[in-house]
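For the sake of transparency, this paper describes our internal protein records without simplification. Such a record has a labelled line for the sequence and another for the backbone structure tokens. Nothing more is needed to write down the fold, since each code stands for a local backbone conformation. For reference, a complete record is included directly beneath this paragraph.
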Amino acid sequence: MKTERKGRTAPWAKALGAVLLVPVMVVVALFAVARHREGDRERDAFDATVTDARRFADALADRGAAPSPQDVRDALAETAGHGRGDGVLHEVRPAADGTRVIVQFSRVYERSPALFGPSTTTADRCFTIDLPVLPADEAPEGTEARVTAHGPDESCLDVASAAPGRGEAPR
């Protein structure tokens, strides 16, 4: 059966379609720009956690070659609060070549179109910091703590349990 089409689309219908389509396109464009800016803020927050970890590692290296768990806690308390950052100590243990510290740093950043839920969230990242065992007077020039940043999807509990020679977590 053949369908017949009588007449053309009315001009008012075309105008109404255009008027309704423009706001939809504007909302989609604004949403895309907001998501891009949120991605930039998240990336900046992850970069800030790397800075926090480096500051923490430098503070540990300044304390000496073999810091005690209390030295590590003190260094974390001194460095974690700078710049709105937060640090959680997961593990301190002796390693073959020094001391290994597993710590998580977090930074808060704003979510973009927060229609439902909180307008802020955190970027959490786990770090492994290896401190050399050599005394400061015997260490070659430029020797410093090695900071390893784990992926954003790796939790510190997984990193600590996967590491060989797992020691006791600090309390």
Notes: Residues 167-171 have pLDDT under 50 and may be disordered. The CA atoms of residues 137 and 168 lie 30 Å apart. The chain is about 40% helix and 25% strand. Strands lie at 86-95, 98-110, 120-132, 146-149.
